[in-house]
Amino acid sequence: MTSKSVKQDEFYELEVDTDLQQSSAYNDDLAPTKVKDRTWNKWNIAALWVGMSICVPTYTLGGVLTAYFGLSVMEALFTILIANVILLVPLTLNAYPGTKFGIPFPVLLRSSFGMVGSNIPCLIRGFVACGWFGIQTMFGGLAIHLFLSAISSGWASLGGVGEVIGFFLFWAIQMIVVIRGAESIKWLETLSAPLLLIVGIGLMYWASGKVSFTEVLAIPANRPEDASFWGYFFGGLTAMVGFWATLSLNIPDFSRYAKSQKDQIIGQIIGLPATMFFFAALGVVLTAASTSLVGETISDPISLIGKIDSPFWVAIAMVLIVIATISTNTAANIVSPTNDFQNIAPKLINHTRGVLLTGVVGIVLMGWELLKKMSWIESDVSVESMYSNWLLGYSSLLGPIAGIMIVDYFLIKRQHLDLVALYKENSLYPAFNSAGLIAFAGPVVLTLIALNVSAFSWFYSYGWFTGAFTGAFLYYLLAKSQAVPVSQIETA
């Protein structure tokens, strides 16, 4: 029997034979999701976004925009809302093939970058996720440390050592959740989403008695009076789009479990923009209230809550922060690199090994911060400074990939993929797709030039947008001349 894809309603399902199972590009974890396993409805997907959006980094975004992008509080919140509405475009478009064919992000990339070439964007996306995984694990470890400190004075005396132990405890919890598979993540997100929303609303209500919302919203912009708003706005907008530019690529890792295209679209519209806006606004309000609460301005909610003189409420708050951080980190920052690393060598790296490899890389990337916690080195780099540079830097790399993926699927392949060929070497899809690789390299080279030529610096400052449009345009020109006619692509 020969492997083939069979259409069932709006989905395609792969029938696997022995030859395909032996292919070096195939393993059971990267294989298309079976129709019977596509159980995520719009509320599950909305819960996924609520669970991912309510996290410490989202809380700090308002501070990033006001401190480092010269925006007022009102302008910052407006920018966050607009950025997440814009993000719905690449998110829903790149989710389409995941839902239709049940394939994860790395397999979809084989169409535009080639069977082997797909590893280049995969590893870029994967290492960015590992970086975020490490950052979020630091926050989760700090929450565990403060929880244990609230109930044990002996633990509190450990100081930085306790934070490092908390880091590894939190690391282990996340590994267990993701190794258990997609249903475990679905259950976690669905359970945590309403709880986190209730907590957020409660915190906003509590803060309303500590600070005047009118005064907070009236805080002026931190930029020269004669400076144009638009330059600062687009710089901040790029950084905010960069925040979820990661998921705009690997959203097929989740949409492959959706019941329908309607579910993935509506779920994302419900779950993303409003949640990001609300929790970023909460961060702005609580940061403003921190002065009256603890006598100093603190933009990190974990540190702020840790200074409250009530062990009971600190312990409760830290449990909730641990839940929030796990729900974000497992979905946003472990699933993608797990699949990305498998794509390198599907026969050697399965789901469990991919999860553990992600965890190890995350520890390595956070090695410097762990040494700081142990007081072996010192650094005064602020959270906001780190995010502003981090967001702009990686969005310049991820933007071109998003543009190439969308053009390839909708304009070049016209929503037709040979599902069997995506899992077989020496088939329809080449080892390296020169069109994808050149279209990606072009914006990257221009970004490097922009970093060294001040007159061209705008290309980097607006990196996600300039990269996405440049990559999409180059790919269309290059791929159009070499495209296989749609009539020759077998989808059923």
Which runs of at least 5 residues are low in confidence (pLDDT < 50)? 376-382
Assembly classification: single chain
The helix/strand series, from N terminus to C terminus, equals EEHHHHHHHHHHHHHHHHHHHHHHH
How widely separated are the two ends?
Answer: 15 Å
Backbone shape = globular
Question: What structural class do helix, strand and pairing data support?
Answer: mainly alpha
Biggest sheet architecture: 2 strands, antiparallel
How much strand? under 5%
Question: What are its keywords?
Answer:
23 helices; two-stranded antiparallel ribbon; globular; 2% strand; NCS1 family nucleobase:cation symporter-1; mainly alpha; single chain; 492 residues; Pur-cyt_permease; Uracil/uridine/allantoin_perm; transmembrane; membrane
Brief description of this entry?
This protein has helices at 18-21, 42-53, 56-68, 73-101, 105-113, 119-151, 153-156, 160-179, 182-208, 213-217, 229-243, 247-250, 252-255, 261-271, 273-294, 301-306, 311-344, 351-365, 367-373, 383-412, 434-452, 458-461, 463-480; strands at 4-8, 11-15. The chain is mainly alpha-helical.
Plain-language structure description:
By secondary structure, the chain is mostly helical. The protein has helices spanning 18-21, 42-53, 56-68, 73-101, 105-113, 119-151, 153-156, 160-179, 182-208, 213-217, 229-243, 247-250, 252-255, 261-271, 273-294, 301-306, 311-344, 351-365, 367-373, 383-412, 434-452, 458-461, 463-480; strands at residues 4-8, 11-15. A two-stranded antiparallel ribbon has the order 1-2. 53% of the residues are buried. Belongs to the purine-cytosine permease (2.A.39) family. The chain crosses the membrane at residues 46-70, 76-96, 155-179, 191-209, 229-249, 270-292, 312-334, 354-371, 391-411, 432-453, 459-478. It comes from Marinomonas maritima.
